[in-house]
Each structure stands twice: as structure tokens, then as C-alpha cells.
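Task 17 of the worksheet. Students: predict the tertiary structure of the chain below and write it out as C-alpha cells. Keep your answer in the requested format; marks are given for formatting as well as content.
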Amino acid sequence: MIILLGLGPGSANLLTREAWEVLSAVERVYLRTRHHPAVAGLPAHLALHDFDALYESATDFDDVYAQIAEAIIAAAQATSGDVVYAVPGHPLVGEASVWLILRRARQLGILTRIVGGMSFIESTLEALSLVPSSDHTSTAPTRPSTHDLQPLSLDPLDGLQIGDALEMAARHHPPLNPDRPALIAQIHSRAVASDVKLTLMNQYPPQHPVFVVRGAGSEGGAALVASPCLLVPLAELDHAERFDHLTSLYVPPLPRPGGLESLQETIAHLRAPEGCPWDREQTHESLRSTLLEETYEVLAAIDAGDLEALKEELGDLLLNVVLQCQIATEAEEFRMGDVIAEVDAKLRRRHPHVFGDVVVNTAEEVIANWHAIKRQEQAAKVEAGGSALDGIAPALPALAQAQKLAHRAEKAGFQWDGHDDRLAKVREELEEAASARDDAHRAEEIGDLLFTIANWADGYGIDAETAAREANHKFARRFRALERIIRERGLALSAMGQAEIRAIWQEIKQLE
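Model answer:
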């Protein structure tokens, strides 16, 4: 039998009675690591074998854990007695080697037994609860105070999230709800702390206060003492003096709701029977105009370079997206998870050079691959009876829709020979518009002209909608300058001749 035994989070005083009885009855114990406070207090008769040397020779931690699992399985196969494998904390909390042993033992029919121990979680919570309420770690205005955190109220049932430092360090965005507290275990080095910091800063601001907790449960009482290096802004996480496998990080929630789940809860509440009558009446169709309006306001903030306005307008746009998803959820059409899963799968599918084995060397190759994948996706839809033009939103602005239509048609094989061919079509449509026989015909031909201009722009990779919007901004800027100059010169626009107006207009263009 393989006995998977937890040594607890700190000194041997924290061993369970069951663990002590097992350790007292056997002669040999395999330790994942000898670097643990409980080892010094184990029964003196034990022969201890550790795997610390593997951490120096193996290529990564996965390799270490695999080799440990193989060694424990081999030891169990070579003896008729019990094999005891002891790990820090609880065997089923943060111990990858234990799970490898369990899976392999069950495949081979080897009996296993779990002898639990306190995990790092309990001792870390205890250490955090002992932070003095009067503790001010620094008078520096950027350094947080424990007054702001109120750690005494921390309770795992309040949504405590548990994470592993190595898994967190390997990510680009933390898998955490920022409105709930989090514990991150085994920050064993400054390098890992630095990577964890960068990941967390994709969700939390640099000055967000965090606790570094070292050796919780060790002999001598609370490990967390009033020290400026323990309560730090997130940006200074890796400035702490030392890190080891018994170092954990407590990340408090954001000071105000900032998670997608919080916004979903607010909107679901608004849609609930006790919520807002207006929100409850909304449908996918009734929100169309609002969605379009919010999109244009986002574009206006971008064009103005106003980041505060952009932050606000993106929030309004997100509100519409979440509200649409809540309406769909109530109707059992789809949920937010479905929306996110679909776009996430699409991004991964269209980036095989990042998430697959495709090799690219330039941005141009990335774009070529992207278009090739989109063509494959569209071809599959056409083969299923659809059109290459399916999926183009009818509510798109006319120029943007024109480019989408022309672009899709070209990808399907309706191609131009080149820029000159497109320009010739523009000139042809211009002539037809100029020679139109009546207003109705002229309107039709001008529409054709605008379509071919959008197609011409698409050939150069120019977004016609953006180009037109920038031209509008340029005209408005110059016209306001024209009005200002005319006022400064004591003139009236309505009383001026076209030659005078054009002369001032040329002045403005030259000044720009």
C-alpha cells in the first residue's frame, strides 16, 4: 500500500494524530522535500529519503513530479509492506506528484491511503488574522495600510480563491475574480514572484495592496509580523527579502466591484422581477439603436484621443453586450459563457502560430494565414448552402458594408486585376453619375460611385469608413478655423465672395 501523508504547513506540532501514528509505525519515509519545518520533529528512528536532488537536475517541475511518482510506484512494487510518501501541507492540496501517484496506482491495482494534514490555507488564514489592526507599515503615501484591508474579516466561505504560483506565473491574465479574495501558494523564488506580479497587474492596479506570508505555521507563533516588506503594493511584490516554497500571497479584492461577474449580477438584478421596469422590457431588437449609438460614441472618444471618455464609453458598450447576454440567458438562447467560448475558440483557431505549430516570421505572413483560415471557414459555410456574403451586418454604415461586401466577393473569386482596374471602374461610375438623365438615376449612379470608391480603397487596405470620418473631422476643423479668421477680420461669411472664402481656406491648409 502507498500511504500519502500530509506533514502540515509548518512545525511537527501541527501533524495530525493519525499522521504521527503512521510515522511511528514505519521505518522509512519518502519525502518530496527535506526543506520543511516538520522534518526536524519527525520520529528519530525513521530512515528519510528525499527527492531534493531532482529539483536541480530535472528540466522542469513536471519532470520532477513524474520522476517522483515513478520512484514511489517502483518502491511499492518492490515491497510487500507500506510505502509512505510525505508531502508538505495536505496531500491533495497543491501536490501534483500525489495525483500522478494516485492515477498510476489505480491503473496498476496498488492500494492507496490518504493521511491528511493541515494545508497551507488554514495556517495562512491564521497568520492573516493576527495582523494588528493598528499596523501601519509605512508613512509613504503610496504604501497601503492594513486599515484599508480589514484582514480580520477574511473567511474562505466568502469566495476565497486558491491558486498556484507557477500556474499563475505562466499566464498573461490571472484566472481570478477581482471582487473576491485570493491566496496564491508556493511563490518559491523572486523570479516566480516577478512573473506572478506581472500576471496580476493585468487585472489589478500597481498600487493594489497584497500580503506576502512566509512560513505560516512555523514554530514560534505567527509568521506574519509588522514589517514593511510583508504588506506591499503589488508593483513591489518581488522586492521582498526572500521567497521559498512556504511563501504565499494574499490578494484582497478590489476596493470597488471590477469583475465581469459583478456586472452580470447587477444586470441580472435589474432584469429580475424586483428590478427596473425599463430594463425588464428590453429585447434584442429594442437595444439595436442603443448598441449602434454606443459604438459611435466609442469611436468618437478614440478619434478625440480622450481616454477618460473612452473608458466610460467602453463601459456603456459592455453594458449593452452583457444586457443582450442576460436577455438571451432568460430565454434559454445562449449564455455569456457561450459567447466567450465561441470567440475564444475563434481566436485560437485563427492564431495557429501562437496556439499551434504553424511558424511565421513576419506580420504579413500572420495576415496571410488569418485570411486563409477565414476563407476555409467561409468555404465550409458556402458548402453547407450559405453565401459568401452571409454574416455581414445589415446595420453597418454604408461605406463599411460596401467594403465588407466587395471584400467577401473578392475572396470568393470575384476579383479585380489590380489597382488600375479598380480605379477605371471608379472613373466609369463617375462618368455615369455625371451623365445621369434625372435625379433618381443620378442618386443610383452616385451610390454605385460610392460603392466603387469603397472597393478602390479596399484594394489599398484603407478602411473607407475611417477615412471618411477623418475627412469629416478635417473639414469641420478647417471650417471652424475659417469662421474664426473671418470673425477676427471683422467680416461676415454670408457677405463674402467665393474667391475670398477660398483664399482664406488655402491659408488654413498651408498653416496645417
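Marker's comment: Strands lie at 2-6, 28-31, 47-50, 83-87, 112-115, 161-164, 182-185, 209-214, 231-233, 247-251. The first strand starts at residue 2 and ends at 6.
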